[in-house]
Amino acid sequence: MNIKEAIKMIQDEKLQGYNMNERKDDRENEVVLMRENDKWIVYATDERASKVTNSQDIYLDEEEALDDFIDRLRAFNRLR
User: What InterPro entries does the annotation carry (predicted)?
Assistant: First the structure.
């Protein structure tokens, strides 16, 4: 999967509560995907917009990071 495919999935499935590579403060209850220094970082935030302990994973491969990001986002939206 690439970024364009991930965005299409998000739109098609009407997934909410994410931050995909935006440089801004974290919001409450969202799944975050960031790229820093050739690494992909995926994590979740809580109701106080704090990074959830032990939720951060770091990937060197974009596809693996996007798969994790979409999986987490789907799970988060099922819980809503």
Answer: Imm59
In one letter, which amino acid is 61? D
Which of 29, 30, 11 is closest to 21 using CA atoms? 30
Q: What are phi and psi of 39, to 5 degrees?
A: -125, 150
The domain tally of the chain equals: 1
Kindly report, residue by residue over 9-34, the tens digit of the pLDDT.
999 999 999 999 888 899 999 999 99
**Judging by DSSP bridges, how do beta strands 18-20 and 31-36 pair with one another?**
parallel
Range of the domain at 11: 3-79
Backbone CA torsion sign across 56, 54, 64, 31: negative
